[in-house]
Design goal:
The complex is a heterodimer of chains A (346) and B (47). Chain A folds into two domains: 212 residues; 110 residues, Rieske Iron-sulfur Protein. In chain A, 51% of the residues lie in helices and 13% in strands. Chain A has 346 residues and is α+β, with helices and mostly antiparallel strands. In chain A, strand 3 and strand 4 form a beta hairpin. In chain A, the strands form three sheets. In chain A, strands 2, 3, 4, 8 and 11 form a five-stranded antiparallel beta sheet that branches. A three-stranded antiparallel beta sheet of chain A has the order 1-10-9, with no helix packed on it. In chain A, strands 5-6-7 form a three-stranded antiparallel beta sheet, with no helix packed on it. Chain B has a domain of 30 residues. Chain B is 57% helix and 0% strand. Chain B is rod-shaped and about 70 Å long. Chain B starts with a helix and ends in an 18-residue tail after the last helix. The chains are: A alpha+beta (346), B mainly alpha (47).
Protein backbone atom coordinates (compact mmCIF):
# COMPACT_ATOMS: atom_id res chain seq x y z
CA UNK A 1 0.00 0.00 0.00
CA UNK A 2 1.19 3.53 -0.53
CA UNK A 3 0.31 6.99 0.65
CA UNK A 4 2.36 8.84 -1.95
CA UNK A 5 4.21 8.40 -5.22
CA UNK A 6 7.27 6.18 -5.25
CA UNK A 7 8.96 5.13 -8.49
CA UNK A 8 9.23 1.48 -7.49
CA UNK A 9 7.70 0.23 -4.25
CA UNK A 10 10.44 -2.16 -3.27
CA UNK A 11 10.22 -4.33 -0.22
CA UNK A 12 12.10 -7.44 0.81
CA UNK A 13 9.57 -9.83 -0.74
CA UNK A 14 9.73 -7.99 -4.07
CA UNK A 15 13.52 -7.93 -4.03
CA UNK A 16 13.66 -11.68 -3.43
CA UNK A 17 11.04 -12.23 -6.15
CA UNK A 18 12.97 -10.11 -8.66
CA UNK A 19 16.33 -11.68 -7.76
CA UNK A 20 14.93 -15.18 -8.38
CA UNK A 21 13.33 -13.99 -11.60
CA UNK A 22 16.53 -12.42 -12.97
CA UNK A 23 18.57 -15.46 -11.92
CA UNK A 24 16.17 -17.77 -13.80
CA UNK A 25 16.35 -15.60 -16.93
CA UNK A 26 20.16 -15.47 -16.82
CA UNK A 27 20.35 -19.23 -16.26
CA UNK A 28 17.98 -19.96 -19.14
CA UNK A 29 19.67 -17.66 -21.65
CA UNK A 30 23.17 -18.67 -20.54
CA UNK A 31 22.24 -22.35 -20.64
CA UNK A 32 20.61 -22.00 -24.06
CA UNK A 33 23.65 -20.28 -25.56
CA UNK A 34 26.05 -22.80 -24.04
CA UNK A 35 24.10 -25.82 -25.27
CA UNK A 36 23.58 -24.28 -28.72
CA UNK A 37 27.32 -23.52 -28.94
CA UNK A 38 28.17 -27.04 -27.86
CA UNK A 39 25.80 -28.66 -30.37
CA UNK A 40 26.69 -26.44 -33.31
CA UNK A 41 29.36 -23.77 -32.84
CA UNK A 42 28.39 -20.62 -34.80
CA UNK A 43 30.32 -20.30 -38.04
CA UNK A 44 30.30 -16.51 -38.21
CA UNK A 45 29.00 -13.40 -36.46
CA UNK A 46 25.47 -13.51 -37.95
CA UNK A 47 25.14 -17.13 -36.80
CA UNK A 48 26.22 -16.12 -33.29
CA UNK A 49 23.67 -13.28 -33.27
CA UNK A 50 21.01 -15.71 -34.56
CA UNK A 51 21.67 -17.86 -31.47
CA UNK A 52 21.04 -14.83 -29.24
CA UNK A 53 17.85 -14.00 -31.14
CA UNK A 54 16.55 -17.51 -30.48
CA UNK A 55 17.67 -17.58 -26.84
CA UNK A 56 16.01 -14.27 -25.93
CA UNK A 57 12.94 -14.94 -28.11
CA UNK A 58 12.21 -18.35 -26.61
CA UNK A 59 12.84 -16.92 -23.12
CA UNK A 60 10.30 -14.12 -23.71
CA UNK A 61 7.75 -16.65 -25.01
CA UNK A 62 8.17 -18.88 -21.96
CA UNK A 63 7.94 -15.88 -19.61
CA UNK A 64 4.73 -14.64 -21.26
CA UNK A 65 3.27 -18.15 -21.04
CA UNK A 66 4.08 -18.30 -17.32
CA UNK A 67 2.60 -14.82 -16.74
CA UNK A 68 -0.69 -15.87 -18.32
CA UNK A 69 -0.73 -19.09 -16.28
CA UNK A 70 -0.15 -17.34 -12.92
CA UNK A 71 -3.67 -15.87 -12.68
CA UNK A 72 -5.60 -19.13 -13.11
CA UNK A 73 -3.03 -21.10 -11.09
CA UNK A 74 -3.47 -18.72 -8.14
CA UNK A 75 -7.26 -19.15 -8.33
CA UNK A 76 -6.92 -22.95 -8.39
CA UNK A 77 -4.30 -23.30 -5.68
CA UNK A 78 -3.34 -20.70 -3.06
CA UNK A 79 0.27 -21.91 -3.09
CA UNK A 80 0.73 -20.03 -6.37
CA UNK A 81 -0.32 -16.70 -4.83
CA UNK A 82 3.30 -15.61 -4.17
CA UNK A 83 3.87 -15.67 -7.94
CA UNK A 84 1.00 -13.23 -8.40
CA UNK A 85 2.35 -10.83 -5.81
CA UNK A 86 4.91 -9.20 -8.10
CA UNK A 87 3.60 -10.23 -11.52
CA UNK A 88 4.02 -6.69 -12.83
CA UNK A 89 7.82 -6.85 -12.44
CA UNK A 90 7.66 -10.21 -14.25
CA UNK A 91 5.84 -8.44 -17.10
CA UNK A 92 8.34 -5.59 -17.27
CA UNK A 93 11.24 -8.06 -17.40
CA UNK A 94 9.46 -9.98 -20.17
CA UNK A 95 9.23 -6.77 -22.19
CA UNK A 96 12.96 -6.13 -21.69
CA UNK A 97 13.86 -9.67 -22.81
CA UNK A 98 11.59 -9.28 -25.87
CA UNK A 99 13.22 -5.90 -26.60
CA UNK A 100 16.67 -7.52 -26.48
CA UNK A 101 15.39 -10.19 -28.91
CA UNK A 102 14.23 -7.46 -31.32
CA UNK A 103 17.51 -5.54 -30.93
CA UNK A 104 19.56 -8.62 -31.85
CA UNK A 105 17.34 -9.08 -34.90
CA UNK A 106 18.16 -5.53 -36.05
CA UNK A 107 21.85 -6.18 -35.31
CA UNK A 108 21.70 -9.36 -37.43
CA UNK A 109 20.70 -7.27 -40.44
CA UNK A 110 23.07 -4.45 -39.54
CA UNK A 111 26.25 -6.58 -39.38
CA UNK A 112 25.48 -7.80 -42.89
CA UNK A 113 24.78 -4.27 -44.18
CA UNK A 114 21.29 -5.46 -45.02
CA UNK A 115 19.04 -3.13 -43.03
CA UNK A 116 17.31 -2.23 -46.29
CA UNK A 117 16.24 -5.91 -46.55
CA UNK A 118 14.51 -5.57 -43.19
CA UNK A 119 12.76 -2.43 -44.39
CA UNK A 120 11.70 -4.17 -47.61
CA UNK A 121 10.44 -7.16 -45.65
CA UNK A 122 8.24 -4.98 -43.46
CA UNK A 123 6.91 -2.80 -46.27
CA UNK A 124 6.26 -5.33 -49.04
CA UNK A 125 2.49 -4.93 -49.03
CA UNK A 126 1.82 -7.89 -51.33
CA UNK A 127 3.14 -10.28 -48.67
CA UNK A 128 0.48 -9.12 -46.20
CA UNK A 129 -2.11 -10.92 -48.37
CA UNK A 130 -0.34 -14.26 -47.90
CA UNK A 131 -0.66 -16.63 -44.97
CA UNK A 132 2.57 -18.58 -45.38
CA UNK A 133 5.00 -15.81 -46.25
CA UNK A 134 3.21 -13.17 -44.14
CA UNK A 135 5.76 -10.67 -42.79
CA UNK A 136 5.96 -12.34 -39.40
CA UNK A 137 8.29 -9.70 -37.98
CA UNK A 138 5.35 -7.28 -38.08
CA UNK A 139 3.48 -9.60 -35.70
CA UNK A 140 6.47 -9.61 -33.35
CA UNK A 141 6.72 -5.83 -33.55
CA UNK A 142 3.02 -5.47 -32.74
CA UNK A 143 3.44 -7.79 -29.75
CA UNK A 144 6.45 -5.75 -28.60
CA UNK A 145 4.41 -2.53 -28.77
CA UNK A 146 1.64 -4.12 -26.69
CA UNK A 147 4.18 -5.36 -24.14
CA UNK A 148 5.69 -1.88 -23.99
CA UNK A 149 2.28 -0.33 -23.32
CA UNK A 150 1.63 -2.82 -20.53
CA UNK A 151 5.09 -2.32 -19.00
CA UNK A 152 4.80 1.48 -19.25
CA UNK A 153 1.42 1.53 -17.52
CA UNK A 154 2.27 -1.10 -14.94
CA UNK A 155 2.98 1.43 -12.18
CA UNK A 156 0.41 2.14 -9.47
CA UNK A 157 0.27 5.74 -10.73
CA UNK A 158 -1.39 4.50 -13.92
CA UNK A 159 -3.55 2.09 -11.96
CA UNK A 160 -4.91 4.99 -9.91
CA UNK A 161 -5.09 7.35 -12.89
CA UNK A 162 -6.95 4.94 -15.18
CA UNK A 163 -9.00 3.33 -12.33
CA UNK A 164 -8.76 -0.42 -11.67
CA UNK A 165 -11.49 -1.52 -14.14
CA UNK A 166 -9.94 0.39 -17.09
CA UNK A 167 -6.43 -0.66 -16.08
CA UNK A 168 -7.46 -4.31 -15.83
CA UNK A 169 -9.18 -4.04 -19.22
CA UNK A 170 -6.05 -2.54 -20.77
CA UNK A 171 -3.85 -5.24 -19.29
CA UNK A 172 -6.03 -7.94 -20.82
CA UNK A 173 -4.11 -6.99 -23.99
CA UNK A 174 -1.47 -9.41 -22.69
CA UNK A 175 -3.62 -12.12 -24.31
CA UNK A 176 -3.47 -10.27 -27.64
CA UNK A 177 0.32 -10.02 -27.31
CA UNK A 178 0.50 -13.76 -26.63
CA UNK A 179 -1.56 -14.56 -29.74
CA UNK A 180 0.68 -12.29 -31.83
CA UNK A 181 3.83 -13.94 -30.44
CA UNK A 182 2.53 -17.44 -31.23
CA UNK A 183 1.76 -16.45 -34.82
CA UNK A 184 5.10 -14.58 -35.08
CA UNK A 185 6.93 -17.83 -34.30
CA UNK A 186 4.51 -20.08 -36.23
CA UNK A 187 4.82 -18.06 -39.44
CA UNK A 188 8.49 -17.26 -38.86
CA UNK A 189 11.11 -19.63 -37.55
CA UNK A 190 8.72 -22.62 -37.51
CA UNK A 191 8.42 -22.40 -41.31
CA UNK A 192 12.16 -22.40 -41.95
CA UNK A 193 13.44 -24.62 -39.14
CA UNK A 194 12.21 -28.22 -38.86
CA UNK A 195 13.32 -28.57 -35.23
CA UNK A 196 10.34 -30.31 -33.56
CA UNK A 197 11.00 -28.37 -30.33
CA UNK A 198 9.59 -25.20 -31.93
CA UNK A 199 6.03 -26.48 -32.58
CA UNK A 200 6.22 -28.44 -29.30
CA UNK A 201 6.98 -25.21 -27.41
CA UNK A 202 4.16 -23.32 -29.14
CA UNK A 203 1.52 -26.04 -28.80
CA UNK A 204 2.57 -26.90 -25.23
CA UNK A 205 2.53 -23.28 -24.06
CA UNK A 206 -0.76 -22.49 -25.74
CA UNK A 207 -2.36 -25.68 -24.40
CA UNK A 208 -1.20 -24.89 -20.84
CA UNK A 209 -2.68 -21.38 -20.95
CA UNK A 210 -5.93 -22.58 -22.55
CA UNK A 211 -6.57 -25.54 -20.27
CA UNK A 212 -5.83 -23.55 -17.10
CA UNK A 213 -8.21 -20.77 -18.17
CA UNK A 214 -10.95 -23.23 -19.12
CA UNK A 215 -10.72 -25.07 -15.79
CA UNK A 216 -10.67 -21.82 -13.80
CA UNK A 217 -13.54 -20.35 -15.84
CA UNK A 218 -15.59 -23.50 -15.24
CA UNK A 219 -15.08 -23.23 -11.50
CA UNK A 220 -15.79 -19.50 -11.48
CA UNK A 221 -19.12 -19.94 -13.25
CA UNK A 222 -20.52 -21.66 -10.15
CA UNK A 223 -19.79 -18.50 -8.16
CA UNK A 224 -21.80 -16.36 -10.56
CA UNK A 225 -25.09 -17.98 -9.71
CA UNK A 226 -27.09 -15.54 -7.61
CA UNK A 227 -27.72 -16.38 -3.95
CA UNK A 228 -31.33 -16.95 -2.88
CA UNK A 229 -32.94 -13.80 -1.42
CA UNK A 230 -35.91 -13.51 0.93
CA UNK A 231 -38.93 -11.26 0.31
CA UNK A 232 -37.07 -8.16 1.54
CA UNK A 233 -34.13 -8.86 -0.73
CA UNK A 234 -31.71 -10.08 1.98
CA UNK A 235 -29.39 -12.87 0.88
CA UNK A 236 -28.97 -15.91 3.12
CA UNK A 237 -25.35 -16.71 3.90
CA UNK A 238 -25.77 -19.46 6.54
CA UNK A 239 -25.23 -19.97 10.27
CA UNK A 240 -22.32 -17.91 11.68
CA UNK A 241 -20.17 -20.99 12.14
CA UNK A 242 -20.61 -21.93 8.47
CA UNK A 243 -18.28 -18.99 7.76
CA UNK A 244 -14.73 -20.13 8.55
CA UNK A 245 -13.13 -18.05 11.31
CA UNK A 246 -10.93 -15.24 9.90
CA UNK A 247 -12.17 -16.12 6.43
CA UNK A 248 -15.13 -15.33 4.21
CA UNK A 249 -17.97 -16.91 2.34
CA UNK A 250 -18.67 -15.26 -0.98
CA UNK A 251 -22.26 -14.66 -2.04
CA UNK A 252 -23.43 -13.23 -5.33
CA UNK A 253 -25.84 -10.31 -5.44
CA UNK A 254 -28.71 -10.34 -7.95
CA UNK A 255 -26.76 -7.89 -10.13
CA UNK A 256 -23.91 -10.42 -10.37
CA UNK A 257 -21.40 -8.59 -8.16
CA UNK A 258 -19.83 -10.65 -5.39
CA UNK A 259 -19.97 -9.88 -1.68
CA UNK A 260 -17.45 -11.29 0.81
CA UNK A 261 -19.01 -12.05 4.21
CA UNK A 262 -16.23 -12.42 6.78
CA UNK A 263 -16.26 -13.76 10.34
CA UNK A 264 -13.65 -12.69 12.87
CA UNK A 265 -14.60 -14.56 16.06
CA UNK A 266 -18.06 -13.24 16.84
CA UNK A 267 -17.81 -10.24 14.51
CA UNK A 268 -19.41 -10.58 11.10
CA UNK A 269 -19.06 -8.02 8.31
CA UNK A 270 -19.68 -7.88 4.59
CA UNK A 271 -17.39 -6.13 2.13
CA UNK A 272 -17.25 -5.79 -1.62
CA UNK A 273 -15.25 -8.68 -3.07
CA UNK A 274 -13.22 -6.12 -5.04
CA UNK A 275 -9.98 -4.81 -3.56
CA UNK A 276 -9.63 -1.05 -4.11
CA UNK A 277 -6.13 -1.61 -5.51
CA UNK A 278 -6.55 -3.98 -8.48
CA UNK A 279 -10.05 -5.37 -7.90
CA UNK A 280 -8.48 -8.52 -6.46
CA UNK A 281 -10.72 -11.11 -4.75
CA UNK A 282 -10.84 -9.80 -1.17
CA UNK A 283 -13.07 -12.73 -0.16
CA UNK A 284 -10.20 -15.16 -0.77
CA UNK A 285 -8.07 -13.32 1.75
CA UNK A 286 -7.86 -13.77 5.51
CA UNK A 287 -8.20 -11.61 8.60
CA UNK A 288 -5.14 -10.67 10.60
CA UNK A 289 -5.45 -8.30 13.60
CA UNK A 290 -8.99 -7.30 12.63
CA UNK A 291 -8.03 -6.39 9.08
CA UNK A 292 -8.95 -8.25 5.90
CA UNK A 293 -5.83 -8.83 3.78
CA UNK A 294 -6.20 -8.99 -0.01
CA UNK A 295 -4.54 -12.20 -1.24
CA UNK A 296 -3.09 -10.51 -4.31
CA UNK A 297 -0.89 -7.71 -2.98
CA UNK A 298 -1.54 -7.51 0.75
CA UNK A 299 -3.74 -4.39 0.81
CA UNK A 300 -5.69 -4.44 4.08
CA UNK A 301 -9.00 -3.07 5.33
CA UNK A 302 -10.79 -3.05 8.70
CA UNK A 303 -13.67 -5.54 8.77
CA UNK A 304 -15.73 -3.11 10.84
CA UNK A 305 -15.96 -0.36 8.21
CA UNK A 306 -13.99 -1.39 5.12
CA UNK A 307 -11.42 1.40 5.65
CA UNK A 308 -7.69 0.87 5.37
CA UNK A 309 -6.11 1.88 8.70
CA UNK A 310 -4.25 5.23 8.75
CA UNK A 311 -2.13 6.50 7.09
CA UNK A 312 -3.72 4.63 4.17
CA UNK A 313 -6.85 6.00 2.58
CA UNK A 314 -8.41 3.18 0.55
CA UNK A 315 -12.01 2.30 1.37
CA UNK A 316 -14.26 -0.57 0.35
CA UNK A 317 -17.99 -0.69 -0.19
CA UNK A 318 -19.67 -2.38 2.80
CA UNK A 319 -23.02 -4.16 3.15
CA UNK A 320 -25.48 -4.42 6.01
CA UNK A 321 -25.61 -7.81 7.71
CA UNK A 322 -28.08 -9.24 10.22
CA UNK A 323 -28.70 -12.42 12.12
CA UNK A 324 -32.18 -13.78 11.43
CA UNK A 325 -33.27 -17.04 13.15
CA UNK A 326 -29.62 -18.01 13.58
CA UNK A 327 -28.80 -17.38 9.92
CA UNK A 328 -26.49 -14.62 8.72
CA UNK A 329 -28.10 -12.52 6.01
CA UNK A 330 -26.63 -9.73 3.91
CA UNK A 331 -28.40 -6.87 2.20
CA UNK A 332 -27.06 -6.63 -1.38
CA UNK A 333 -27.60 -2.85 -1.57
CA UNK A 334 -24.10 -1.41 -1.27
CA UNK A 335 -23.38 1.21 1.39
CA UNK A 336 -21.02 4.12 0.69
CA UNK A 337 -17.36 3.02 0.96
CA UNK A 338 -16.13 3.07 4.54
CA UNK A 339 -19.57 2.85 6.20
CA UNK A 340 -19.42 0.84 9.47
CA UNK A 341 -21.73 -2.17 9.05
CA UNK A 342 -20.24 -5.17 10.88
CA UNK A 343 -22.25 -6.81 13.69
CA UNK A 344 -21.53 -8.98 16.74
CA UNK A 345 -23.29 -12.31 16.85
CA UNK A 346 -21.97 -13.59 20.20
CA UNK B 1 -12.87 -8.73 -11.07
CA UNK B 2 -16.14 -6.94 -11.62
CA UNK B 3 -19.01 -8.77 -13.28
CA UNK B 4 -18.61 -6.68 -16.47
CA UNK B 5 -14.88 -7.43 -16.55
CA UNK B 6 -15.57 -11.15 -16.14
CA UNK B 7 -18.14 -11.01 -18.94
CA UNK B 8 -15.71 -9.28 -21.33
CA UNK B 9 -12.95 -11.71 -20.38
CA UNK B 10 -15.22 -14.70 -21.04
CA UNK B 11 -16.41 -13.32 -24.36
CA UNK B 12 -13.03 -12.17 -25.68
CA UNK B 13 -10.83 -15.00 -24.50
CA UNK B 14 -12.43 -17.93 -26.37
CA UNK B 15 -12.50 -15.93 -29.63
CA UNK B 16 -8.81 -15.15 -29.32
CA UNK B 17 -7.99 -18.74 -28.33
CA UNK B 18 -9.91 -20.14 -31.31
CA UNK B 19 -8.26 -17.70 -33.73
CA UNK B 20 -4.79 -18.58 -32.45
CA UNK B 21 -5.54 -22.32 -32.47
CA UNK B 22 -6.74 -22.08 -36.07
CA UNK B 23 -3.74 -19.99 -37.12
CA UNK B 24 -1.27 -22.32 -35.42
CA UNK B 25 -2.89 -25.41 -36.95
CA UNK B 26 -2.81 -23.87 -40.43
CA UNK B 27 0.80 -22.78 -39.99
CA UNK B 28 1.72 -26.35 -39.02
CA UNK B 29 -0.29 -27.94 -41.82
CA UNK B 30 0.97 -25.61 -44.55
CA UNK B 31 4.63 -25.82 -43.63
CA UNK B 32 6.77 -26.37 -46.69
CA UNK B 33 8.29 -29.86 -46.84
CA UNK B 34 11.87 -30.17 -45.59
CA UNK B 35 14.58 -29.76 -48.17
CA UNK B 36 15.43 -33.08 -49.83
CA UNK B 37 18.85 -34.43 -48.90
CA UNK B 38 21.61 -33.44 -51.28
CA UNK B 39 22.25 -36.11 -53.89
CA UNK B 40 25.53 -37.99 -53.50
CA UNK B 41 28.37 -36.68 -55.58
CA UNK B 42 28.60 -38.44 -58.92
CA UNK B 43 31.62 -40.69 -59.19
CA UNK B 44 33.75 -40.45 -62.21
CA UNK B 45 33.85 -43.66 -64.09
CA UNK B 46 37.25 -45.08 -64.16
CA UNK B 47 38.52 -47.15 -66.89
Amino acid sequence: MSVGFRAVQWNRAKLVYDAILVACVVLYIGGYLLVAHWLEPPKDLPAAIDGRIRAFGSCAFIMLTIILCIGPLARLDRRFLPLLYNRRHFGVLTFLVALAHASFMVEWFAVQNALSNLYDELTKLADYAKFIGFPFKTLGLAALIVLFLLAATSHDFWLAFLTPPVWKGLHMAAYVAYGLVIMHVALGVMQSDRNPLIPAMLVGGFACVTVLHLVTGWRERAGDRGTAADGEGWLKVGPPLSIPDKRARIVTAPDGERIAVFRDGDEIGALSNLCAHQNGPIGEGRIIDGCVICPWHGYFYRLADGCAPPPYTEKLVTYRVRLSNGVVEVNPRPLPPGTPAAIRCG
Amino acid sequence: MRRAHRAVHRALWPVLALAVALGLTMALALRPPPDPPAPPATQESKP
